[in-house]
Structures are given as C-alpha cells and as structure tokens.
User: Fold these one by one.
Assistant:
Number 1:
Amino acid sequence: MASTTLRLYATKVTPNASHSRLFSSHSADDLPLSGIRVLELGQVIAGPFCGQLLGHFGAEVIKIEPPSVGDPLRVWRELDVDGVSPWFRSLGRNKKSVAIDLRKDEGRELVKRLAAKSDVVLENFKPGILEKWGLGPSDLHPLNPSLIFTRVSGYGQTGPWASRPGYASVCEAESGFRYINGNVDPKTDGHAGPPVRPNISLGDSVAGLHAAFGTVLALMSRQRSASQGKQKGQTVDVSIMESMMNLMEGIIPEYDRKGKVRGPSGSSVTGIVPTNAYPCLPSPSTAGLPTYIIIGANGDTLYARLMRAIGREDLTGPLYAHNHHRVARQAEIEAAITEWTSSRSAEDVYKLLEAAGVPVGRVLSVREIVKHEQVKARDAVEDVWVQKEDGGWNVKMPRVFPILQGSDAKTKWAGPDLGAHTDEVMKEDLGLDSDEVVRLRQDGVIG
C-alpha cells in the first residue's frame, strides 16, 4: 500500500504548474520506488550505497560526478582493462552518470534545476559544503517545497563535531565499535595489540543503509502530508558514528545499569557461550594454512546436541543447562570443543555437526562464495554486462537485497562510464538544445 501511494504521489503532486512532469522517470517498472527521482551528489561509499539501494527498487538515480575524474571510487583498488574499478561497476549500477562541475556557477545552476525536478537530493559532503555552493535545503526548498534532503556525514549536521571530516574508520572508533573488536590481553582484559578492523568500510555501508531507510520513511511521511494537502520536505540527517552506535546492542544500557564496560572478545562474543571460531586441521585447498570452523551452539538444546556430537556429555546437565551457567564455565567448554575440532578437518567437522543439527559454518573466501550452492540457488551473485563500443564483458557482483516477493527488482546496467547520460539528462530533463550542450561542454561545465 505504501509503495503504491509513493508512486502516485511522485507522479501527481506538483509544487507549481511548471512541474508538469515533476518526479516522473522513464521507467515503467512496477517497483516500490518507481517514479521517484534521486539526485545523487555523494561520492565514494556511504551516499552512493544508499543510491544503489534506492535505484535497485525502482528510483531513477541521477549521479552527479565531476568531469574528467568522476567519483574517486572509479579508480579505487583493482582496476579493470578499461581502468575503471569493478567495485564502481557494482556500486554504480542502475544509475545515470551526469558529469557537472559543481565548482562553476553554471554547473551549480544546472544541479539546482535538476533538484527542482527531483524527489530526493542525496549527499555525503562535509556539512556546510552544499550551503557554501548555494545548494543546501534553504536554497532548494523554495524551488521544490516537497524535496527530501538525505545527508550523510561523519557526526551529523549539528553539534560541536558537525564540521569534522567523516571517515568510516575514525567514526567506527568514536562510536565504540573498534573498542569491542580485537584480541584480548588475558592480564588486563583489554586489547592485545591494536583494535581489529573488518576489512571493509563497514561504517560507510551501515550509514548508507540508514540513509536508504530514512529516505523511504521521509517519502512515506511526505505522502501522508500530501494527502492532507500539504507540501512538506524533510531533511534525513544520517551520521556514520550514530549509525554504528545503532549496532551496539546492549552495551550502553548494560554500562548504565551495571557499570559493565564491554571490551574485545577475540573471535567469540561476550556473554554468549559457545559461539566461536575453532581451529581445524589444514585442508588440501588451503595449502597447509590453518583453517577454522564457526560453531554457534549457544541455545540450550543446541549446546546439548553439540556435546553429544563431540562425545562430551560430561559437560551437560544442570551445571551447563543455560547460557549463564555456560558463561561461568566458558574456558572449560571452549577447551573441549577446540580439542575435538583440532584433530579433524573443517570439512569433517562441518559434516558431523551438520548431521547433528548444530549450526556450523566454514570460513569461506570469495573463491568459495561464488561457487556456493546456496548462492547459486538464489542467484545471489549475478553477472552484469559492461557495454563498450567494441564489445564488453561480464562482472560478477552480489545482487542487491532484500528480495521482495512479486517484485521484479533487478540490475539493468552496470555502473556507467563517466558522463554516459549527460546529454540525455541535459536535453530531456532540462530541455537544453544541442548547441547549448556543446557550449557547456566546451566551457568545462559538463563532461
């Protein structure tokens, strides 16, 4: 119901008569966000990840990039034969690339005109940058009163830290997330070495998820206002630090009520036993390197199954019946499991525990993931064509999730070449003629 009304609102409600095709896109797909136009001014990960999610579920996403260089992500990490990162091809999928120089007055005016015809402006610049360019909410809402402004930054749009640059690694640390991750020094219960970072920019992606969620909530709120005859825009203020704090479970209330400061816990998780990574014999596929298996048997019934499977029923009964009992005897339980797994291959452990009904998983690399039977069965990795004048190639990328039953959300194209849609948008959406487009390009305003 909500998605239908959003779609209707996107095509029917107009702030003024000049917006006769306001918010309409060229897509005829019956998707939850069909008809919603998103003007993506963000770059790298946090904002663009939000844009990727919205675009997958039907929104028309127009990505503004600086001419000549584009989004920095285009040249991050591994580069393909054309010099563009496959990562960008994934994160930029289903978006239109429009090259506009925001440093130029005419470039900013073009963006202003696009914002007047959009439902959402999505950005992840440092707070104050868009205001400096005359593209902030107070500049754009007079042109489009129902515009939603989704803003992703390190620490939010207000407060004493608002103007600080927001990098995921730093915000993860400031949120407390890095403090609870790492190996434990048994003498101090603190860190044995530096805190451990997951080998992805987790804070950026988590903030992108919050931004997408907040954008959809704002669209729903706007629809409700429209049903009351009101034109209401809204700012969605997403902080990377606060997004990470949203993942911190009971850490703050436990500190408040019990004075407990949760620290690192290695490969386990504090207060839940047993759930850990356990060593196994090297496998032929790992060339003699150590292998590990993940066992999650922290449910009472699951724990009893695990102990039966490893021949340690002596570690069952009233003294081990519930989680708080097992937490008090964690060292003993972990030692028993480790002794059992250490004499077996990960494959053998997996088969034995799977047969016993105990949750178990191998620690897989991307090499195994793309061949995984469950991944294949659900088409969780897809091949997406990168079109070039002389041909092209497929790039494997994870599908965008979740899967909505009855919705044909899919990847239509890979992240496009820089400026691939500039002419289309200038002519079809802004009504510029060919001569004007040529002039703007010659003046370096567009690319």
Number 2:
Amino acid sequence: MSTCDIKIWRTWALAITHEAGAYTEQKFNAEKTGGEPVIPSPNLDTDLVMACDRLADVLIKAYKNPIKIQIDIARYSKLISPKNTGHNEEKEEKLLERCPPGHEGTKVVDKPATIIDVSGTIIAWYLPDALTETTQKEIRAATNLLGPSLEKKWLGKCWVNSRMHQFISGMVSQGHENLSDPEVSASLKGPSSENILKAIARPAAIASAALRVMHPQQYFAGLRALSHLGDKAVSKELPQMPETLQYWASVFNSLSIISNRETPNHRDHLSIPECFDILTTMGNYSNARMRRIVRHGVDGGEGDRIAWAWYMRDSVHIYAGVPSCGWAMVEGHILSTV
C-alpha cells in the first residue's frame, strides 16, 4: 500500500505511534520468520519498547494458534442491516439459520488465538496478557481523570450502567452519522483535554501497533484519514481540531471508555464491517463473552472492570476521502509496508 500521500507532522503524537507500529511489525515478522533481531527507534522510550515487545510476543502466539469455524463472514455481514444493533434475539436466530456457523459448539478460548472463517478471513484476534503492568497502570490513571462519572456504582448485586465517554468526534450527532464538518467531542473541549490526551497516548500507541500487524490496510487507512483530516482542519479552521490532532496518538478515530458497565449482547453497527475494533480490558472480572461471531457483551456481577473500545467511524473516512479497506486475510495479511 502506498503511503506517499500520508503526511504526519513530527510534532504530532501520532508520529511516535507510527514508529511504535513499525517496530512491532518488524519484531513480529522477525519472530515469524526467524529473522535478525530488530533494533527499536531511539525515539521510543523504554516503557514503550517493552510494551511493543510484549505485544509482538502475544501476536505471534495468536498467529500460530488459528481456530477455524465454518462460516463465511463476508456473506454473513451482507445479511446484517446497518441499523441492526444485535439486540433482537429473534432476528439473530433467523440470521443464524440463513448463515449457520457450523457445529463447533461453545468454545472457551484462554490462550492467544486468531478466529478464521472458511475463506481464510481473520474474524478476530484474542490477545490475553498483551499489556505490560506499566500500560495497565496508565490505563487506570487515564480512566481516573474522567472523575466521578466513571466511579463504581452498585444496586444490590447488579451493576448499574455507568457512563461511557466518547473522545474524538466523528460526524456524530445523537448517535446518527452525517456528513457535516467533524468537531472535537465534548470530553475534549474542557481544560483537562490536553492532560487526558497525553495520558492515553501510550495505550493508544499499543492498540495502533497491534492493528498494524493484525490489519495493515486498516492501519494505513486510519493513518491516511487523520492526515487528511489534519489538512482540512487547518484549511477550514475547524475549532480545536488541529490542537486535538496534535496530541491524538491513535490511528483509530474514536474511543469509548467504559467502567463497570453491564452490557447486553450487541453489535457495533456504526463500525466498518471489514475493520477491526480493538477492545482493551483490564481488572478483576468474569462473565465477558464473545458469541455469535461479532456480538459481544458483559454480564453484571462482582469485579472491577475497565474497557477501552477503539474503533473507526466510516463517516470520518468518507469525509477525509479515504477508500474502504478489505477484510484481513490469513495469507498476505502481513503486507510490505513503508
């Protein structure tokens, strides 16, 4: 994939993320092929290098542990309405009748793995223990910056829904996509916005580095979208967007932070079907589930859970003039990149 039209300002936090992604990809490929040791860029600090090393190790374990299921994910996705949130159990049963996933039954996955469909499309990567202790501490500290709205709340033995915070805006208004100019989300318009963005920088870099290995086309599509958005932010004088992009360290254009939230089975219908979302979780909890391919949820109960959901809104890519990417495939998913 050509990267000649991608411009990243050296002062952007995304520049360090890009170097971290390149190092992780090179480290992954070296371990995959038995190549020479990889020397990290001197621009990467020790904690970030150690985080990338841990990530590359878990990625290679997942790559070598494919779990194949009898479903065609591209065909399955075409049957799903863009407005289908996955909440209607009757509709989900009918969907599975039209596109059955095979007879594998329930499978508990407790080791790094990739989930592969019949065509060789990678549906998901499962990467337990991919975060260093330092990164986990940074995630907790950044979450704490959000204050009382994310404090643990209990009602009897059940969680009540805590608030979710969406960071960079796409073109989103009350849950609906439109094609107006994007604006920085309310969470990043306050006096603490710069501190919040700096606090999430390393976790953002780690999630982006993982994506560079898992789906390079999506990684560069996200990078290109932010590059083009930066140009438009300056030329159209979009309020606060240039300043926010300077500190935004992820190739994803959206982040939701969720704490101790009971979440019913659902499908992220505003995400791009061919693209990965990255769900980073930490804490003491159980009862998380990923079922029926792309529906997922978390039961209420004992535990202290933080989840960061990184994703890409297609409306941002459309606004930036960036074409859609394809599915991540087993063969050739590690592309030659610059």
